[in-house]
Amino acid sequence: MKIAIVGTGYVGLVTGTCFSEVGLDVTCVDIDQKKIDNLKKGILPIYEPGLEEMVSRNAEKKRLHFSTSLEESIKGAEVVFIAVGTPPDEDGSADLKYVLSVAASIGKYITHPLVVVTKSTVPVTTAEKVRGAVQTELNKRKNKTEFYVASNPEFLKEGAAIEDFMKPDRIVVGTDRIEAEEIMKKLYKPFLMNGHPIIFMDIPSAEMTKYAANAMLATKISFINDVANLCEMMGADVNMVRKGIGSDSRIGTKFIYPGVGYGGSCFPKDVKALIKTAKEKGYPMRILNAVEEVNEAQKEVLFTKVKKHFKGNLKGKKFALWGLSFKPKTDDMREAPSLVIVEKLLKEGASVVAYDPVAMQEAQRILKNTISYSKEMYKSLDGADALLIITEWPEFRVPDFDEITKRLKNKVLFDGRNIFDPAEMKKAGYAYYCIGVKTN
User: Fold this and answer.
1) Catalytic residue among 18, 28, 266, 434
2) Domain total for the chain?
3) What mean pLDDT is predicted for residues 193-200?
4) CA distances (Å), 47 to each of 14, 154, 321, 389, in order?
5) Counting CB atoms within 10 angstroms of each CB, which of 22, 191, 219, 253 has the fewest?
């Protein structure tokens, strides 16, 4: 079976590579010649554990190809996925110009029936706009080639995307034609053989499912952060509260870890887009407005603790910062809490030396030379007034505290991810601050 994936960003590259892994003939298409040239050399535009090796293996077996020609890539294909970016407009709505541009190009080039699938996260009714864009170009050509549209949202976690794709909780497909449903069943057959469920539904419901899923997860994060802030005021320990509520099967343990707020390419963008979609219909998403408000405030909580500890005077202070990416196992810094914290520290006249296992290059692209960067985790601590932990990378979990103590100017640690035990930190003589626990 031959398919084409348009867009070689996070979703497109992971999707195309994983489909090739189960034996499909896949061509990933992008208009960026440099990106395609690099992919042919095995140089990836993103960091995702295990992806580089999988790309190399399938390219070598000639199941995975890269091209800038959509016209050539869809010849003989049964399915073409649109997996390009949908960046937020100034008003928070998803910008569909790239999606619809690809749809129009498909209409210019198709010569045989195929399924046009939106894989990008898009608002409800986008599939109909895609259908219209394809049909408009076919009409211009006076071409009566039949095509079908479908929505197949992705549910990939950065840092675990391959596992999520190869062993999905569910596969959601929205379509209004039995022909498209049969082709999508054929496409996903290798995954169905392993017992992973495929759920067929109407197209608007599939489009809404993606937004609703991300909005629910974002809500859980903001909820526990709101509770954490109250716990701290009341003398309760949010870590205990989290365990207490997480043991309830109706709530579960996932996404109820307190911290410095969510970031990344999905949650902030999708929450905003869903709020905007509802607003256009005259319906206020009251819970999601609160979710967004809580999350933006949460990104400043750790900085507030820093400022309070140093009695409001941060000028000339030096801070070591561990973790730049919005979460572990990715170099993605979009909407990362670290960016807010760094901006606040610099504005107060402090300096920052940062370390991250994989996001340093991305940080330098965004932050330029406004901060310093250390290639060594412990070296970043030299002469620092305090250490701030922003991202819960595994290597931060059991650090050498003798080394930390030796290098830090003061035994002060601000833990934005509640990695350490407050009692143990107090016993070690540290001024220790975390989220949702009164420690000082």
Assistant:
1) 266
2) 3
3) 86
4) 11, 18, 21, 21
5) 253
